Every structure is written in C-alpha cells, then in structure tokens.
C-alpha cells in the first residue's frame, strides 16, 4: 500500500496565496532524478526532472535561477570508480541545456556534484574532469558526511566514516577543491557539527556551505529529544558561525529524518506550521551568521514528502517579513548568487 505522501494529489491538498510574488529568488538546493516506474495509485513521486522542477518553480514564486546538488544520479557505468560521479554532472548539463529553450522559466545555473574526497590530492584529476564536462556550470562538490551508529538512522549515500571531516586524506582532498576555487557543500547530522567546525578552522581558504541546519535528528534514538538536541545544536551553530568561510543554507528541515512526521498526515504542512515548529532554527542561524552568509533553500523534492514548493517559500517569506530589504535580498538571492558565482 502506498505511503500517504506518495498518493496522487496529496501534496496539492494545501493551497496558499503567494506572498510577495514579484521577489526574485535563487533556489540554491534541489535535486534531479528519474525515479522508478510509476506503481498503480501513486503519482511519479520519485521522478524529478525539468518538467517537475518547473511545475514547482512556476507555482507562484519568482524563481529565476537554481543550483543542482549531488544526489548520486546517472554515474558512469564503466571506467575507473573515481571518475564515475562525473556522469551526474553531464546528466544535469543536458537538462540545463533543455531549460535554456524557455528562458522565461527558472534556469539551472550551477551544479554541485560529487567526488570522493578520501582520494586526497589525487582527487584533483576528478575535479578537473567535472569542470571540463560541466559546461561552465560546475561550482563544487558535496561529499555527504552523515553518519550515525544507530541503524535506524540512514547513513549518507557516500558511505562516510564516523569522523570523515577529520580524516587527513579527506582534508587533503578539500585542499585541492579550494585550490580550484570550488565550494564544499556539506550534509551531516547535528552531532557532527563540531567536526565540521574543526575542519573549517583547519581549511580557512575553503568556502563551505552548511546544508539543512546540520541535520537535527528526530528519529530512532533521537525521537522525543527535540529540546535537548536543540540546546546543544544552538551552541554548536554559534561556534560554527565564528568561521568566516562557512555559509548556511536555511531549509531542509521537512525531511522525515527530522522527526516532525508531516509525511504521515492526511494533509501536508502549511507555512504557519513551518513557522510554529521551526522558526527558532532559522532565526538563531540568521542571528549567528547574518544574512550575508545565509540563503533560503527548498531541498526539493526531498522536502516534498512534507510540504509543497509554494508553501515552503511562503514560510520563508513569513519568516523574513520584518527584516530590512537588504537582508531579504541576501536571503532570497544575493548570498546564493555570490557564493555560487551566478552573476552572469
């Protein structure tokens, strides 16, 4: 039987009037994938290609540009393992070219792919190949570090070690990334933020983007421990923000792993529910980093398991409604444009 969030039309059961529809937005975090064959009674909920992206970005908000983030798609099936992730970059380049056929819609303007940073200095040749195949869109690497000892918490698709950010070879690989003026997107869990802070201090020349608030967990052994975890998380974010080379993405908290269980309900989340349950994460991070180092992100279609695209951007606009215009411009557009070099 289908899960509730997979039922055709479930995500459309909450409709909201679009807030501030003219505001220009860069969505700096989405994925693309083919997904499985469509089972009976279920929409193609795991497929997310250009048509699906545009269905979301054209749902009312003024999304001008996007950045694709690695998700293990379309790797080369042949050749040395270290080069196989470059296939994902080629896959996204082709979709970006399709998007250019209609410039009135959101354009995929940046690609963050994957390379195994545990290759150390030899990762350079993989990065050079990403750049070559990236058609001017390649901006950096995400080597996800999410790891937990409890089997109920899924470890990242890149098969990290428990303290991968502290591994010598991993940091040598990141030195190569920095030398090419490429960025490092992160994905880990809340109990690994301290490791990232150490890494950021060790590599001050590396531009780091902290995804999804550092993944505060709410499942398995972390279920019903939200307040305890939040207090630890707050202090870790303060420490991380002291590293001037780190930027923060504000979003990605609607995944099942975060423990709100919106994906199990008859109705997806509303923007007011996002504010009620999660605004403190956004406001604390914004206070620590400042708007010039923060950007809103959709994390679609992963967060689509809990909330629709137009609703999550409404939530962001409600969260920022009392801020100065300069801060709003940073959060919705300028920070992402600067960090991912999307000016052209």
List the SSEs and their pairings:
Layout: E1 24-30, H1 50-57, E2 62-69, H2 86-99, E3 107-113, H3 124-133, E4 138-142, H4 168-179, E5 183-186, H5 193-202, E6 208-210, H6 226-241, E7 246-250, H7 271-289, E8 294-296, H8 309-319, H9 325-339
Parallel strand pairs: 1-2, 2-3, 3-4, 4-5, 5-6, 6-7, 7-8
Helix pairs in contact: 2-3, 5-6, 6-7, 7-8
Question: In CATH's first tier, which class applies?
Answer: Alpha Beta
Q: What pattern of helices and strands is seen along the backbone?
A: EHEHEHEHEHEHEHEHH
Radius of gyration: 19 Å
**Which class best fits the helix and strand makeup?**
alpha/beta
CATH topology: TIM Barrel
Could you give a short description of this structure?
The protein is of the alpha/beta class and 344 residues long.
């Amino acid at each position: 039987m289908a899960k509730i969030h997979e039922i055709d039309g479930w995500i459309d059961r909450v409709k909201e009037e679009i807030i501030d529809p003219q505001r220009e937005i860069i969505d700096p975090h989405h994925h693309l994938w083919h997904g499985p064959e469509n089972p009976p009674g279920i929409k193609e909920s795991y497929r997310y290609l250009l048509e699906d992206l545009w269905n979301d970005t054209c749902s009312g908000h003024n999304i001008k540009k996007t950045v694709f983030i690695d998700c293990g798609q379309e790797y080369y099936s042949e050749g040395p393992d270290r080069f196989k992730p470059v296939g994902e970059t080629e896959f996204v380049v082709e979709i970006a070219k399709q998007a250019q056929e209609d410039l009135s819609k959101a354009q995929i303007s940046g690609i963050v792919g994957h390379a195994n940073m545990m290759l150390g200095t030899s990762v350079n040749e993989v990065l050079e190949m990403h750049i070559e195949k990236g058609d001017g869109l390649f901006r950096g690497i995400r080597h996800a570090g999410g790891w937990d000892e409890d089997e109920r918490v899924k470890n990242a698709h890149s098969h990290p070690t428990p303290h991968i950010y502290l591994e010598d070879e991993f940091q040598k690989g990141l030195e190569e990334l920095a030398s090419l003026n490429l960025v490092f997107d992160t994905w880990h869990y809340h109990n690994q933020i301290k490791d990232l802070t150490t890494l950021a201090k060790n590599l001050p020349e590396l531009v780091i983007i902290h995804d999804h608030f550092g993944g505060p967990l709410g499942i398995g052994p972390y279920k019903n421990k939200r307040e305890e975890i939040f207090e630890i998380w707050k202090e870790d974010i303060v420490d991380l923000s002291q590293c001037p080379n780190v930027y923060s993405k504000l979003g990605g908290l609607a995944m099942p792993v975060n423990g709100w269980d919106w994906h199990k309900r008859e109705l997806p989340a509303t923007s007011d529910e996002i504010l009620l349950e999660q605004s403190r994460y956004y406001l604390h991070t914004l206070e620590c980093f400042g708007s010039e180092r923060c950007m809103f992100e959709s994390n679609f279609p992963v967060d689509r398991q809990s909330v629709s695209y137009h609703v999550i951007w409404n939530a962001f606009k409600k969260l920022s409604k009392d801020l100065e215009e300069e801060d709003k411009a940073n959060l919705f557009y300028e920070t992402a444009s600067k960090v991912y070099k999307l000016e052209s």
